[in-house]
Amino acid sequence: MKNLLFLAVGLAGSAFAAADQKIGIDDAQIAHVMVSANDLTVEASRLARLKSSSEEIKAFAHQVVREHSNVNKAIAELTTRLELASLDSPISQELKVDGENRLAGLKGASDDAFDKAYIDQIVAFHQNLLDLIDNTLMPNVRNQELAALLFGLFAPLSDHLERAQQIQK
Length: 169
Known about the structure:
The structure is a single chain. The chain is mainly α. It is built from 7 helices and no strands. The longest helix is centred in the last third of the chain and has 30 residues, at 111-140. The two termini are 17 Å apart.
């Protein structure tokens, strides 16, 4: 169990650590990073709604799915309006690989270990995503509407992090 948790948290952090290298990214890539991050969280949370033995975690996972899906809809509307084509970047590519590995770890977790593995991943993921937005995406964003959308994510992401940390205790 400890190895699974260590692997999951390590993988979740590696894409974010790479992002801290201040790679030059444009608005289309920033939007794609956010969609990728939200997709990963939604996928893990959908699994949690099915596999968790805790009603509290299932309810939290439902909230995460709903709110992260809504963010992706807002990003899609904004990128369509701004005529930004979705562009991959090293950050979004690594997020995808890490997310697939994290999801495989969750799928392989025993029923007893699943809830802890999921909530630990959600805590690490939200901490790292907040850091990524603050340290890499915000400094590189050019469009004010996209910057406002990113800035507006701090409160809900912080709320998710706080709630996940409460569940974690």
